[in-house]
Amino acid sequence: MGLLQERVALITGAGGGIGRGVALSFAKAGAAVLVAELDEHSGAAVVEELKALGARARFVKTDVSRKQDIEAAIQAAADEFGGLDILVNNAFAPTPNVLLEDKTDAMLEQTLNSTVWAAWWSMKAALPYLRARGGGAIVNFYSIDTEVGAWLHGDYNAAKSAIVGLTRSAASEWGRFNIRVNAIAPTAMGATFHKLAAENPGFAEMSAGMRPLGRCGEPEADIGPVVVFLASDMARFVTGETLHVDGGLHLPGYNSRPQHIAAREY
């Protein structure tokens, strides 16, 4: 019996990277998984991987910046698998990496819609189903970028700060329903990492060297099991936490200033 045997989970952005790693870990732990993913090809491919592991799985095309899409995905999970026990808010839509003064209102709106609003909508929509099961678990995704004030991510940093506030508020208020709400701040070798590594020789080695553990994280082997833990009864007394899953990167932090930006501009 796995840690998540007979549990039903919905994971947003599960078509690749960390989301896929979490979905695979959930399947191995016994959960039925609703893959809420925008890209039809990758979403369907992950479902086939999950089924090959013996899991029940379904793909629903989901744009997390659209409330109706999120509500439809949660309804589909309940219809397909008979309820919902776990919600993982992983997906977001990235914007161009530009300086704060060059970030537009449209960029901020896109980021807020795919992170803060997406979590807000999904948590509210999932609540009746979690309550019907006598409780459940929600795992939201935070980022170390917010803590170090990462350059070129002003909209993302603002949104992820809001995610922590939402996580703590829900943990405080929904504990009375036996619903636990936690956040993780992961770093792993997802699509963005591999793109940067391909474009910048030595990037992977530099990234590994920044971490006390001396290596970069793997989505399934390093991040997925932590989310499984938070979603399982092993964490039955854990709520309102923000857990770094980054090989210790949060200890030294990092300097994200682009080399071409002067130390002082007039």
From TrEMBL:
<dbReference type="InterPro" id="IPR020904">
    <property type="entry name" value="Sc_DH/Rdtase_CS"/>
</dbReference>
<dbReference type="Pfam" id="PF13561">
    <property type="entry name" value="adh_short_C2"/>
</dbReference>
<keyword id="KW-0560">Oxidoreductase</keyword>
<dbReference type="InterPro" id="IPR036291">
    <property type="entry name" value="NAD(P)-bd_dom_sf"/>
</dbReference>
<protein>
    <submittedName>
        <fullName>SDR family oxidoreductase</fullName>
    </submittedName>
</protein>
<dbReference type="InterPro" id="IPR002347">
    <property type="entry name" value="SDR_fam"/>
</dbReference>
<comment type="similarity">
    <text>Belongs to the short-chain dehydrogenases/reductases (SDR) family.</text>
</comment>
